[in-house]
User: Which sequence fits this backbone?
């Protein structure tokens, strides 16, 4: 099975839903709850960490001759941004979906409560 494909109905899940709703993922065609395989999450996190470490190493070599707070803040900022840019596309490319167990699905029962009244008692007592 390819990445981003529902194991229940074999429909492809859009990449935006994989990244945005990775914990509450639902198949767009069969509405079955899905989860991303742990290996895919670990691979994307590892790719982001490798990119962050590489960017930190390059930025640290560039700013090592300067003194001041920016010489150690900027490499950390750039490595964080590199992780933030690399990890989501890596998750999109490696997202192996599997069916979420029914005991892990949150089911909400009951009815909604009535909306609150905006009537204030203070104005009823004034002459």
Assistant:
């Amino acid at each position: 099975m390819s990445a981003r494909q529902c194991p229940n109905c074999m429909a492809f899940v859009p990449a935006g839903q994989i990244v945005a709703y990775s914990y509450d993922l639902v198949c767009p065609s069969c509405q079955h709850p899905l989860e991303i395989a742990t290996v895919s999450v670990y691979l994307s996190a590892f790719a982001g960490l490798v990119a962050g470490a590489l960017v930190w190493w390059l930025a640290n070599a560039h700013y090592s001759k300067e003194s001041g707070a920016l010489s150690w803040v900027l490499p950390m900022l750039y490595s964080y941004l590199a992780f933030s840019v690399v990890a989501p596309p890596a998750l999109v490319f490696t997202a192996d979906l599997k069916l979420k167990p029914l005991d892990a699905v949150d089911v909400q029962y009951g009815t909604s409560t009535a909306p609150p009244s905006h009537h204030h008692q203070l104005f009823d007592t004034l002459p």
The chain is about 45% helix and 5% strand.
